[in-house]
Amino acid sequence: MSIFVTFYAIVMVIIMIAFIGLFVLIVRALLKYIKSKDVRQEKSAMRKSLGEALKEHRTRSKMTQEFVAEMIGVSRQAVSKWESGTSDPSTSNLFAIAKLYGISVEELLKEVE
């Protein structure tokens, strides 16, 4: 009977150590996430800046979101998401957009930086 009690105690200690280790990992991850707030905000601002540049060029070119979407083969919602900063266009779409607006990708990205 004492072997089972000892075995049970050892298993419980191992489980407790595992939970403590898991707790430590979760706390470290949360602290890292909290400390990265500035980086996340900066990335968000960059996306908004790219979106603002895309919208500015589209309106300057007197094009609608629907027209841009048709010309590059995406949905109007995709163009809207790019302009609002919710998502970023793929590299190939970025090249197509720049060509449509009559500028180079480099010029477009310089406006963001």
From TrEMBL:
Domain HTH cro/C1-type: 54-108
InterPro entries in alphabetical order: Cro/C1-type_HTH (IPR001387), Lambda_DNA-bd_dom_sf (IPR010982)
Transmembrane feature ranges: 6-31
SUPFAM superfamilies in alphabetical order: lambda repressor-like DNA-binding domains
Origin superkingdom: Bacteria
DNA-binding in keyword set: yes
Coiled coil residues, start to end: none
Keywords of this entry: DNA-binding, Membrane, Transmembrane, Transmembrane helix
Molecular function per GO: DNA binding
Protein name: DNA-binding transcriptional regulator, XRE-family HTH domain
